[in-house]
Amino acid sequence: MPFLRESDDVYELYLGTEGVELDEANPENRFALGWIDAVNAALDEVAEAGAASKKGLVITATGKFFTNGLDTDYVFANADKLPEYLDAVHAVYTKVLTLPVATVAAINGHAFGAGAMLALCADYRVMRTERGFWSLPEAALNMPFTAGMAALVRTRLTDATATEAMLTSRRYGADDAVATGIVEEAVPEQDLLARARAVAAERSASGGANLAVIKRGLRAPLLENLARKTPASLL
User: Fold this and answer.
1) Following CA atoms 96, 234, 32, 213 in sequence, which dihedral angle do they give, to the nearest 10 degrees?
2) CA pair distance 133, 231, nearest whole angstrom
3) In 3D, which of 74, 81, 82, 78 has the Cα closest to residue 31?
4) 22 and 67 in contact (C-beta within 8 Å)?
5) What is the set of domains in the chain, with CATH numbers?
6) Alpha-carbon separation of residue 161 from 48, 172, 180 (angstroms)
7) Taking the CB of the first residue and of the last residue of the chain, which one, N or C, has fewer CB atoms within 10 A?
8) pLDDT truncated to tens, each residue of the chain (235 aa)?
């Protein structure tokens, strides 16, 4: 399950399980229901404590994946619950987008689908150079984007990059992700967390309740789309 660490300078949210490289129950850090609950609890803790401490948040993971997105086993077995499930995913995005602290995604491995979009919710992104792709595979998998997800991609990327990413399911390595504006930096694996921590710490002075207000104003149309209930007719 995802877990939170706190240092003198930053909070670190790990999307894997503490003490193991791969969680046998969820090795790809997919958005399982319990996983979502654990992420929400960690984000709530950061929101409450961060408003006073102003410490930034680094979001990263253990194992091969940053996160491989939706829990497709759950989706296929619970089609009648898909709208509520996707609304829960949107709620995670909203929490990250509106935290009262600086947020940095340290993309340690593959970030696909809903996981790729989670990285877009951070204020800043750093990706490792040696391994891992950022990709939106929905078109290749014959899956639609929700209104909230489409709005998130449109808001955070240029039109050219969003169009290519959404329509072709291209896999972007670190250098291509920098060139297309998906991430701000690409660094070697051994420097990934240090660089993410440094960026979060550099931006910590602006943290606090007012930062959350600014973020909500900056992202108001996007947040409205994420708050829309997913219709049962989506699929």
Assistant:
1) 10
2) 30
3) 74
4) no
5) 3-234 (3.90.226.10)
6) 35, 11, 6
7) C
8) 999 999 999 999 999 998 888 888 899 999 999 999 999 999 999 999 988 899 999 999 998 999 999 999 999 999 999 999 999 999 999 999 999 999 999 999 999 999 999 999 999 999 999 999 999 999 999 999 999 999 999 999 999 999 999 999 999 999 999 999 999 999 999 999 999 999 999 999 999 999 999 999 999 999 999 999 999 887 6
- Distance (Å, rounded) from C-alpha 204 to C-alpha 57? 9
Return the SS3 of 173: coil
Identify whether the C-beta of residue 169 lies closer than 8 Å to the C-beta of residue 140.
yes
The gap from C-alpha 188 to its chain's centroid, in whole angstroms, comes to: 20
Which sign does the torsion angle of CA 123, 126, 132, 134 carry? positive
- Residue holding tokens 């319990």? 34
Which helix (DSSP H) or strand (DSSP E) does residue 19 occupy?
Answer: none
Rounded Cα distance between 138 and 136, Å, is 6
The CA-based dihedral angle spanning residues 46, 49, 55, 57, taken in that order and rounded to the nearest 10 degrees:
0
Residues in the chain: 235
Sheet strand arrangement including 3-6: 3-6, 10-14, 56-60, 103-107, 124-128, 185-187
Please choose, from the candidates 14, 36, 166, 32, the residue with its C-alpha nearest in 3D space to the C-alpha of residue 94.
36
Instruction: Kindly report the pTM of this predicted structure.
Output: 0.97
